[in-house]
Amino acid sequence: MKDEVLARNEGGMWPWLTQRVTAVLVIVTIMIHLVLTHLFGSAPLTFADISDRLASGAVLVNDVVLLLAVLYHGLNGLRMVVLDWGLSGAGRRVFDAVLWIVGIVAATYGLWALWVWAS
Q: Quick check: pTM over 0.90?
């Protein structure tokens, strides 16, 4: 029974495990983000204030971890749903490649946007 649930053709153990780890990571980093933004941030949210907050190491690191965890969690969840529909073989490999490309492009864009605000 365990082999059927965690079989490689059904997604594999590592994507399953990282889905759970990133779920916890997303919850923790969202809570940290809210605390840093709303409890410790005394100034109103303006463009200059956001730039000052992101210049802080803690806020920037938290937002980068949040961005990467949300991207991985979302795209891996989409992959698991599509694999549950029965996608396999060459179609699965193409779909995995497309998800990797989308993930890399989205992460690059998100990191660039954070970098622009922080500098």
A: no
